[in-house]
Write a structure and sequence with these properties.
By secondary structure, the protein is mainly α. It has one domain. It is built from five helices and no strands. Helix 1 packs antiparallel against helix 5.
Length: 161
């Protein structure tokens, strides 16, 4: 090969490289967005769960409960939250590898949101504290669902490319 041919080959490689780098940069950014999105929901969920487990008496009145039965019920809710979040760490670690598991996380979020809305809509008038507690869950779970769904769509797109 002549020097002129090598120069042409090198310039072609250089021309192709930026688009490859741009694709890798975009893919990395989407993966990091997905990690952050799922991690944000995970951290808040676990924080809430731990508070329910450790200090249930602080939250019983928000559910119209009191005493030992109320503490046990709130602790149980905290344990359920922890179980619900067992699926998140793998998705946070590698959203591209655990795409199916991210679908499970999103399905869990949809089920939770639908259940919360059904409970909220079934409450009769006069249960303001309970309604306010459930409404906070609805807003958080709806925002988390939107955030994680956007992240999942991004991961789906870059994994197809």
């Amino acid at each position: 090969m002549q020097a002129e041919d090598l120069h042409v080959k090198d310039s072609l490689d250089t021309q192709n490289q930026p688009s490859h780098d741009a694709g890798d940069t975009r893919k990395k950014a989407i993966v990091w967005f997905a990690r952050i999105a799922f991690a944000a929901v995970f951290v808040i969920n676990v924080q809430c769960a731990l508070q329910y487990v450790i200090w249930p008496q602080l939250y019983t009145s928000g559910f119209g409960l009191a005493g030992i039965p109320g503490n046990v019920a709130v602790r149980g809710l905290g344990v359920a939250f922890l179980m619900w979040n067992a699926t998140y760490p793998a998705v946070i670690w590698n959203p591209l590898r655990f795409k199916a598991l991210s679908n499970v996380v999103i399905a869990q979020q949809i089920i939770g949101l639908a259940g919360e809305l059904a409970i909220l809509l079934s409450l009769p008038a006069g249960f303001g504290a309970i309604s306010a507690s459930i409404t906070r869950f609805v807003w958080f779970d709806a925002a988390g669902l939107v955030l994680m769904a956007i992240a999942r769509i991004g991961v789906w797109r870059v994994s197809r490319a």
